[in-house]
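Quick start: read one record
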Amino acid sequence: MANFEERKDHTALEIDTGAVEMDISEEEEPPLSLTQCIANIKSKSAASWGWSAARTCGLIFFLYFFLFFLDLMGGSFKVLGGCTAGAMFEGLR
């Protein structure tokens, strides 16, 4: 919210940034040890691992089709542009 104050010599604009007070006296947590990391991994459920596998497969699936359609687009530019526009996409293979 901005507040305007009229003064004799100029008009000042005060801007309320809504700053949040932070308590910086807290110490940071130490990094996890290797045994704690392994315990965290072992504590994950089968459903969590299943969702992770599904996301990974989905990522690979969409990456493959992105590259497939990029190649298809390069071929269509070759047809439409007489091989000059398709040469831009030739280096992506």
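The beta strands are 2-6, 11-15.
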